[in-house]
Amino acid sequence: MGATGINALVGHGGTGPGLLAEGFPQAVHRESPRARPGTRSAARQLMAPHILVAYYSRTGNTKAIAEKIAAALGADLEPIIDHTRRSGPLGYLRSAFEALFHRPADIGPAVHQPAAYDLVIVGTPIWNASVASPVRSYLRRHHPAMPAVAFFCTCGGMGIARTFAQMAKVCGKQPAATLAVREIDMPDVAPAIERFVAEINQAAPRAPIRPVEEVAASHAPQPQR
Ligand SMILES: Cc1cc2nc3c(=O)[nH]c(=O)nc-3n(C[C@H](O)[C@H](O)[C@H](O)COP(=O)(O)O)c2cc1C
């Protein structure tokens, strides 16, 4: 990848043209189900975009990045559960085969429903210059319910553009932001994640915070005259 290292990979794939113009299709003016009404955190979460980070990880790299992104954005985490045995040389070959031929994987049901979120960030390891089969299956199953998407991947460094293009094709949507992390850059990934998070926050500008009581009052039934 040359001397530019991870910086060249951040934002690879660009910003979806439609998304920046339109913002997040589902407005962010709703209260998070996690916030207790009337609390300061409820007021803060009221205006924050509701974000889900869904990922699959065979050996832990993608999981580590998913957890950092979720922590930085205050997002929920959805590990994609894969029922196929992928350890050892046979597991490696099976994974490479499925990715190469776009075969589906046997994945479990989702815990978090993507339709409940403003943005779903989807993370995959690269397999054979392609999206990993469990992530392909997740995208195929859930993409109609995703109002907006962003992607990240971990890899040795090959097949990044192709993988993001495949993900966008399965979703039928361009990502709001993308992040590619090479294994070699894993120890110093914080600046790249910061830039990715900033890109996401730019695509989903926060509305000015209003006190919870004021918002609740605006939804209260009007007195009869
Ligand atoms: C079957 C298989 C195929 C892979 N193919 C590629 C590849 O084409 N390009 C690449 O850069 N890395 C490739 N890798 C390396 C993984 O993308 C990399 O190790 C990734 O960080 C693993 O993520 P995980 O620990 O979350 O499973 C491959 C790994 C596996 C298991």
Describe the structure.
There is one protein chain. This protein has 225 residues and is α/β, with parallel strands linked by helices. The chain has one domain (6-34, 48-206): Rossmann fold. It is 39% helix and 14% strand. The protein has helices at residues 6-9, 17-22, 40-47, 61-73, 88-100, 133-142, 160-171, 190-203, 212-219; strands at residues 51-55, 76-79, 119-127, 130-131, 149-155, 178-182. Strands 1, 2, 3, 4, 5 and 6 form a six-stranded mixed beta sheet that branches. Strand 3 (119-127) and strand 4 (130-131) form a beta hairpin. Flavin mononucleotide (FMN) binds next to helix 4, helix 5, strand 3 and strand 5.
